[in-house]
Design goal:
Strand content: 25-35%
Strand order of the largest sheet: 14-17-16-15-18-19
Oligomer: single chain
Structural class: alpha/beta
Number of strands: 19
Helix content: 10-25%
Number of helices: 7
Largest sheet: 6 strands, antiparallel, barrel
Radius of gyration: 22 Å
Length: 359
Amino acid sequence: MKKVALGMSGGIDSTMSALLLLEQGYEVIGITMAIWDDSIDIKESIKSGCYGPGEIHDLEAAKKACAELGIEHYIIELKEEFSQNVLSYFCDTYLDGKTPNPCVMCNQRMKFGFLPERAKAMGLDFDYFATGHYVRKSYEKALQRWQLHRAADSGKDQSYFLCFLSQKQLSHVIFPLGELTKAEIRELAKRKGFTYLTEKKESQDFLETDDYSVLFEQNAFSEGDIVDLQNNVIGTHKGLIHYTIGQRRNLGISGRSEPWYVLSIDAQANRVVMGPKQYLYRKELSASNVNWLSIAPPETEIKASAKIRLQHDPAPCTVIPLGKNKVRVIFNLEQLSITPGQVVAIYHENTLLGGGIID
């Protein structure tokens, strides 16, 4: 019998993962990371999110689920690590005029990094680490590599968030939900007496507030010009952190004959460029910090498909290696709102090849 440490949130996915692992004969312990810093000025949760004062309820939910399953539960304190590895990245990226993806960084650095590492350092003994992500993995003997694949439930697939995992991280992880659909997991929960989990609202956002400014030092950002494509000043923005490429609402401009969008963000000049939707389409991008997961770094161009945000179907493209973990991606067709700072995930059919940060 093998022992598994399961990243436990107390939600339906992690709880059913524990149940499935137990039914498969594993010995399971639940581990939950505590990351909330109550010195940050979020007084109360106004929406469901991964980071905020509502963490106390999540910890209780995880503890309750483990008790009902009859497994041990441990809380792993990682507040400082989260601040240094996720919050700092989040703020620095925004101040650079780009749009961060904290979920990708949190998965690679925290959930699959510090969480199992700290559990081991605490003396917890386990053979595998598991999560409730909807993804699949396999081992390719010819390549001598572990590979990550999209989930059986394409609508719930979370491989995009895991494109920065390493071979070492992937080698010791189990994904119990990869072959199942969300509907099947909900039915399982009802059948096993966990009906209340099917009614629980799941976290969909990073913060439990819409006001990102609470994470920044005072005076870290300021108002600046909104300009059109001819550099005419057409308004005043309220700080670069409130804008992202493709944004249409809350722009601070009006009186246009057609909807206008954020086209680009210039951090050096502290200005936001806006214009009609037609100028949001691009056919190529460059990316850096590329992590090749399921294959070795290619030396020549490859045909693939690429996903530029979570709610984006992978689009056919050519990927050209540029050296030093950089690539150029040329799409067959123009794509809407390619956003610097966001993650591009590269696929071959259902296999996640790797990913990088859009420059």
